What does this fold into?
Amino acid sequence: MKGIKQIAIGIAFLLVFLTACKEQKSTQTEKNIEQKVEQLLQQMTLEEKLGQMNQISPFGDDEAIKEGVKNGTIGSILNIIEPNQVNELQRIALEESRLGIPILIARDVIHGFKTIFPIPLGQAATFNPITVEYGARIAAIEASSVGIQWTFAPMIDISRDPRWGRIAESLGEDPYLASTLGSAMVRGFQGDSLHLPTAIAACPKHFVGYGASEGGKDYNSTFIPERQLRNVYLPPFEAAAQAGAATFMTSFNDNDGIPATANSFVLKDILRDEWNFDGIVVTDWASAAEMITHGFVADDKEATEKSVNAGVDMEMVSGMFIRRIPELIKEGKVKEQTINQAVRNILRIKFRLGLFDNPYVDEQAPSPFYNAHHLEAAKQMAVESMILLKNEKETLPLSTDIKTLAVVGPMADAPHDQLGTWIFDGDKQYTQTPLAALKKEFGDQFNILYEPGLEFSRDRNTKHFPQAVNIAQKADAVVLFLGEEAILTGEAHSLADINLVGAQSELVKVLAQTGKPLITVIMAGRPLAIEQEVKLSDAVLYSFHPGTMGGPALVDLLFGKEVPSGKTPVTFPKTSGQIPIYYAHNNTGRPATGNELLLDQIPLEAGQTSLGNTSFHLDAGFHPLFPFGYGLSYTTFEYSNIQLSANQLKEHEVLTISFDLENTGKLRGTEIAQLYVRDVVGSITRPIKELKRYKRVTLDPKEKQKVTFELPIKELAFWNIDLKRVVEPGEFHLWVAPHSAATGEPLVFEVI
Ligand code: NOJ
It folds into this structure.
């Protein structure tokens, strides 16, 4: 016994020693990097410095690009993905340019490079940082194999408006969920060390507030006051910076009149001074030049001055820094030390990425694209991302004993569209659609009848409906695949109305009339307003755009090989008019009570005040269609025995919350348990609930597990009336719940 104790102590010492050595080594490496950066900087001409700040996208003239690399006037290139081209340009940079500075090769690798994972909004539905990190790791392995060293991801704009097409790229509406998953993506892309060959630099974007674009129209203005900016929009970015993100991207929106690319308050005061970020700040695509169109600057010279002085290091594609900075320096409008600082930031990341040692890619290495392991990971993530929204009479899972299955809908076999937005490099030939997966898995076991009914989601031609009804009548069950084409989502693809497009709703109606069990699967880039379709269906699975392996994942879920576990990462409105709608809203002075009379219930000529005065819509009430954090399973879970470690705590203390979670159904399944807290009275009004923790718990039937959450009280801090981040003493309410709208008496504790 004593011997074991000594060995244990020995191991503990060794671990401490090794960690100390590792830390010392990394401090040493960092010191060396800073020295090398300074040495290089001293040798650089102004033109070479400005070259580093210049990012180009190929413009068709390869010779001019080579010339630019040789002259040191290009620091970064985006959108080159041919290994031999990358190698040739890096060779020119290292061997033929005066100072041998490598190029930084960038690409939008958003939810996979070749193997496409679910869209980020779908990834958020997993509430699983491990799966999300792993997905980003695989994307980095595939992307780095062609020489990409930098991705413009994760996109962590808090998104509370499903009309906005870019909600698809986001991690949803909640600051805590987006913080945990966004930093998981950063870790996945960058790996254990930026220096490793498969690491690619991450770029949290868009800094900041872009998700609040007015009316959900892309590129639109935002009006976010500082307190809300800090309490809602900045937390995911701060978490990403803490996770070591190497770069940040500015955004297209102007907030309260100041375009993000010239906002020194966020780019300098917050990012650099408060968060100590020492990486690269890049503009979005020509976003500095667009400040002319915004009406914020008169010309590209002023745009350059404003963005460089605000803290931008690198300009994407318009080339104006290199053109205009020399005169701005001469006129004293931009200081050379500002330029030096920007170049330091860029060189530092190039050193950290190991590009000075080896910027090349091994052209002979076996390709990692679509390997079995990557496909399996994409499938697993797709399984975890799908949300069961309705399952009446245990319609799902389907029995494999059926004789005939009718497969209908424009998304049943849409290899391009199920990949979703931002898939520059994904190849639809590798997509496994639900129809293909069903045929592969069950083609020999039962009849599969297929009639899309509509050729694509926007199709309004109902001429194939009779055939769809006909196969439904012959079948034991109908699986209807609806949704939206990838192009209806993503950048610049916003909608005013988030109903199903084309004649899809009519298709649901005619199929529901057959009386056959109707399972509707929705593949989309946003939460759609599907109240009627949910009513008419017996079961609804929401898969977002699920990526390359969406088909097999859906088949496993439909037939019970897997049990759904995804939860809504964003509130689903009943109708577009409810937008913006999100769970963490303030209470108002007159919150809705649930007793409100809706449009059809109001007596004729009712008196103006006779109905009560609360905050709701006459035609839509105040409930969403599905709240944030919602999702069913094929099994059921029961929460009980919720205990708090203390009822009075101080700011430095940690509250432990424990509860029993029991699988009360018949199948093994995973529940995402959620912890919500409400700060009852604040120096400013506070949200009615805020997500503070979540946990995926897998249980066998009848298994009961004690689950605990640790909540440091300091995490209850918020930016208060004095714009200070503080925990304000007072009463707090707490819920452990399956979703954000779960009602019930809260537990109460006090911060003293
Ligand atoms: C514009 C988009 O807003 C941004 O997200 C993207 O990374 C850049 N273009 C580069 O493609």
Q: What stands out?
A: The chain is about 30% helix and 15% strand. The chain has three domains: 24-352, 372-558, 637-751. The CA atoms of residues 114 and 426 lie 4 Å apart.
